């Protein structure tokens, strides 16, 4: 089992992976780090946990979209082209509201 230290959001994290998967793991960490950098560029200044959460939510959203496209292709249906990437000035506010809601749920679960 290989051990790789990746740097995400300015922090180093040791992560184990299968031998030969080091480069793949490093590439995935770089993608997460790129997402965190984009969030910071939008003015978001949160702790490491929240930034990782927001980056994970972005990746999960993209994964969901891709899974829907794959299902449509397997069913023989047409896949709609994704809308062009546009700057959404309200995106930071929406992500912040979503993160606060998730933190509220987590806090209520911890208190239960």
UniProtKB/TrEMBL annotation:
**Signal peptide, first to last residue:** none
What Pfam families does the annotation carry?
ZapA
Any one GO biological process = cell division
- Source domain of life is Bacteria
Q: SUPFAM superfamilies given for it? A: Cell division protein ZapA-like (SSF102829)
UniProt keyword Cell cycle present? yes
Q: Which residues form a coiled coil?
A: none
Give the record's keywords alphabetically. Cell cycle, Cell division
The protein's name in its UniProt record = Cell division protein ZapA
Q: Which organism is it from?
A: Neoroseomonas alkaliterrae
């Amino acid at each position: 089992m290989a051990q790789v230290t990746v740097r995400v959001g300015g922090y180093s994290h040791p992560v184990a992976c299968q031998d030969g998967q080091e480069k793949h793991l490093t590439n995935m960490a770089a993608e997460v780090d790129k997402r965190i950098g984009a969030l910071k560029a939008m003015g978001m200044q949160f702790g490491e946990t929240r930034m990782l959460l927001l980056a994970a939510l972005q990746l999960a959203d993209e994964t969901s979209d891709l899974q829907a496209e794959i299902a449509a292709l397997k069913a023989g249906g047409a896949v709609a082209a994704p809308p062009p990437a546009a700057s959404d000035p309200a995106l930071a506010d929406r992500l912040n509201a979503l993160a606060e809601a998730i933190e509220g749920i987590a806090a209520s679960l911890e208190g239960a």
